[in-house]
Write a structure and sequence with these properties.
Order of helices and strands: HEEEEEHEEEEEH
Oligomer: single chain
Shape: globular
Largest sheet: 10 strands, antiparallel
Low-confidence stretches: none
Number of strands: 10
Mean pLDDT: 88
Distance between the termini: 39 Å
Structural class: alpha+beta
Number of helices: 3
Length: 231
């Protein structure tokens, strides 16, 4: 673990869990346990906050066909802090949803892997950047530290090469509950949807370090980005 792994709440940043999982998956490939093929889908469940430790994290991996489940713990006997489920296989073609609110998404050359495309971990980071920008510009009722990411589900489409002009991220709210809301996003290029993301944002009490119900003002802010027919 590194100091740079932490977010503004002093928890391990949600993207870093993907880094941990990717490192572990690479070791499985090197040991011949897993084929080093492409990834079609990744789901991360954030079960409880992970704080900085001098000890390395412990990852338990279970391989089942084209699926890989990785549970991240600070020590082997502890309950998992996060669960990463990866589906291996060639990504399919993604069809764009109806138009929604869009924000720019700039790719850096350092986001690219050896194949010249944005890596899976960096796709998660781009979605994170888009959510932060969405909250700052469209969901101003939500203040920093008042919500956390509970679950994220990313489906990969056509690979993303570097380009000078930004990609676009289209985002909308598909569900608003008592203490959680689901934000859907798509990274869109000139003629392709490169990735699709569903993220569950959970109300969070920073002082008590636990979930909390959203206020009426916060729920109204989420609802303002809903599409017709969304619950």
């Amino acid at each position: 673990m590194r100091w740079a792994d932490l977010d503004s709440l002093n928890h391990v940043n949600n993207v870093v869990y993907l880094d941990y999982a990717a490192e572990s998956r690479a070791m499985l490939v090197a040991d011949g346990v897993l084929d080093g093929g492409p990834v079609r889908r990744t789901v991360v469940e954030f079960l409880r906050p992970l704080l900085l430790s001098r000890r390395p994290v412990h990852i338990t991996s279970t391989v089942d066909g084209d699926g890989l489940v990785q549970e991240i713990r600070p020590v082997p006997e502890a309950s998992p802090f996060a669960r990463v489920t990866t589906t291996l296989g060639e990504p399919g073609r993604l069809i764009a949803s109806s138009p929604a609110d869009t924000l720019p998404c700039q790719v850096r050359r350092s986001d690219l892997g050896p194949d010249g495309l944005v890596t899976g971990v960096k796709v998660f980071e781009l979605f994170q950047e888009a959510r932060i920008l969405l909250v700052a510009s469209r969901l101003k009722a939500l203040s920093a530290g008042r919500f956390v990411l509970g679950r994220i589900d990313v489906t990969y489409g056509q690979g993303m090469p570097w380009r000078r002009e930004p990609y676009e991220v289209s985002s909308w709210v598909s569900r608003v509950g008592t203490s959680s809301a689901a934000v859907e996003s798509e990274i869109i290029g000139a003629d392709a949807v490169h990735a699709r993301c569903s993220a569950v944002l959970v109300g969070f009490d920073l002082e008590a370090q636990r979930s909390r119900p959203y206020t009426d003002e916060e729920r109204e802010a989420f609802a303002s980005l809903s599409r017709p027919g969304s619950p």
